[in-house]
C-alpha cells in the first residue's frame, strides 16, 4: 500500500504546500500547532477541496483537480478518528459499530467483528451507550467503528489530544496493536513527540504549511536541523533489545552493544524496543565521567553542533546505538570546547526516560536506524 499526496492551497495569511509519498504503516504528520497537519487530513478526507490537489491511495485516485476528479467523502473509503469520538449518543456501542459496518464497500463477517472487538477490548461495552463510557473507552469504540467501515486508509486527527495522561496510556497500546496487526495504513496527526516516538514508522515533518522532511521515524526525529516540535520537544529515538530484568527494579537494554538501564519494562527478554531520549535530559562530558548516580553513559563522536538564536546549542552525537541529541547552553559548549569530530559521552538518567515513550511490538527499523549489535 502506498499513499501519494500533493496539495496546494492559499488561505488568508497562510499558504499550504504539501507533497509526500509514504508506505504503509503509521505515518505521523508531525509539527507544531498551526503548521497545516489537520488541514492536510481534511483535504485527504474530502472535507474541503484545495486549489490544487492530487491524492492517490494504492493507485486509486481520490482527487485530481487537474483532471477534474474529486470523489465525495463517502466514496473515498477512508476511516477517520477525531479528537472527540463523535459517537451517536442515542445508540449503543454495538449499534455505533454497526453504523460503521454499513458503510463498508464489502461484507464484513461476524468473525471479523468479533476479532476487532477482542483486539480493542470492548466486548463488555457493547450494550452500553457512549455517555456511560470513559474518554478512552469512547475512543476505542471510535477506532472500531472506523475499522468496520472497511477503509483503505485511516486518518487519525490528534485522537489523544482531548484525553488526560492516564487515558492516553490506556489508548496507546491499542494503536500499537492496530499498527502491528491490521494491514491498513494510518496517517496520524500529532504535535506530541512522545506519541510519535511510540507509534510512527514514518514521519512527515511540517512547519508553517510546508513539508520540511520525510522518512523513517529515527531519521527524522534525530535530525537536529528539523526538530518539528521545536527545541523543547527535540529528542532522538534509539532502537534496543531487552537483555535482562534485574531484581532492583531496572530493565537492562542493549543498544548497539551499549547497556542502558530503565525502570522495569513490561517486555519479554529479547524483545525489540525503541525509546525516546529527550535532548534536554542529556548531559555531555568529553571524558568518561566517574562517580555519578546516572547509570547510562554512551560514548560517541560529535557529528554536528547547531547554534540556536537564544542561549542554547543542539549537539548531535553519533554513538554505537545511533544518533543522540543533547541540548546545552552556549556557555557550556564553550567551557567544554565542543567541536565537531571530537569524542564525547552522553550521560542519561534512567528515570528521565519515560516508559510511556518506549515503543514495543513490531516496530520496523527505517532508514538510518541501527540494529542492535550490527
Description:
Mean pLDDT is 90; it is low at 365-374. It is built from 8 helices and 20 strands. It is globular. A hairpin with a 2-residue loop joins strand 10 (202-207) and strand 11 (210-216). With 374 residues, it is α+β, with helices and mostly antiparallel strands. The strands form 4 sheets. A 6-stranded mixed sheet has the order 7-8-9-3-10-11, with helices on both faces. The chain has a 5-stranded antiparallel sheet with strand order 2-1-4-5-6, with helices on one face. It has 2 domains: 2-221, Rossmann fold; 235-357, RNA polymerase II/Efflux pump adaptor protein, barrel-sandwich hybrid domain (OB fold (Dihydrolipoamide Acetyltransferase, E2P)), CATH 2.40.50. Helix 2 runs parallel beside helix 4 and helix 4 (135-148) runs parallel beside helix 5 (165-181).
Please report the first level of CATH classification, the CATH class of the largest domain.
Alpha Beta
Mean pLDDT: 90
Number of helices: 8
E-strand count:
20
Strand order of the largest sheet: 7-8-9-3-10-11
Terminal Cα span: 29 Å
CATH superfamily of the largest domain: P-loop containing nucleotide triphosphate hydrolases
Proportion of beta-strand residues: 35-45%
* Largest β sheet strand count, sense and barrel closure: 6 strands, mixed
Q: Give unreliable regions as ranges.
A: 365-374
**Cα shape:** globular
| Rounded radius of gyration (Å) | 22 Å
- Judging by the overall fold, what is the CATH architecture of the largest domain? 3-Layer(aba) Sandwich
* Structural class by sheet pairing and helices: alpha+beta
Number of separate structural domains: 2
